[in-house]
Amino acid sequence: MATTKYTGYLASAATHITLTATLANGSADISSALDNSSDLALWEDLELVLTDFAAAPTANAAFELYLLSSVDGTNYPDGASGATPNVEPTCLVGLFPVRAADAAQRLILRGVQLPPGLYKYLIINRCGQALATGTHTLKGRRYGVQTV
C-alpha cells in the first residue's frame, strides 16, 4: 500500500528579499519574481532574519507577509515597496510577530501555500519601529508531497 508523505526540501535556502537596511514602520519591500513552474512545490517554509531595530519594537507587533501571484504569467496584484504599499488584503499569507527586544530576531513562518507559476513576496513592517542598519533577509525553502 502506498504512503503519502512530505518530500525533503527541494533546494537549499534561497534569499527572496534583502530588506531595506532601515525599513521604516509602515513601509514595505518586495521581492523580484519567483518561479515555481518547474519545481511545482506546494509549500514553502520562510525565515525572516532581523539583525537589529532602531529601538525595541512593540511586543507581538508583526511584519506582514503577502504573496502576489501572477495568475496570467505577466501581471501581479497591487503592491509596491516603499511607504505606501497599497496591497490587497486577500494576498496576506502570514505574520512574523516580534519580541519587544532591540536585538537580532530569527522568525519562522511554516507552510505558505505556493502557486504553480510566478509570484512575489511583499513584506510590510508593522512592528512600531524602524529597522536599524544591518542585513535583514527573508529566506525560504520549498517542499511538496510524495507517494512511496
Give the helices and strands, then pairings.
Elements: E1 4-6, E2 14-19, E3 28-30, E4 34-35, E5 43-50, E6 62-69, E7 92-97, E8 105-113, E9 118-126, E10 136-143, E11 145-147
Antiparallel strand pairs: 1-11, 2-10, 3-9, 4-9, 5-8, 5-10, 6-7, 6-9
Polypeptide structure, described:
- There is one protein chain.
- The chain is 0% helix and 44% strand.
- It is mainly β.
- The protein has a single domain (17-147), classed as Jelly Rolls (Sandwich).
- Strands 3, 4, 6, 7 and 9 form a 5-stranded antiparallel beta sheet that branches. The chain has a 4-stranded antiparallel beta sheet with strand order 2-10-5-8, with no helix packed on it. Strands 1-11 form a two-stranded antiparallel ribbon.
- The protein is globular.
- The N and C termini lie close together (9 Å).
Features:
Jelly Rolls; single chain; 148 residues; mainly beta; four-stranded antiparallel sheet; five-stranded antiparallel sheet
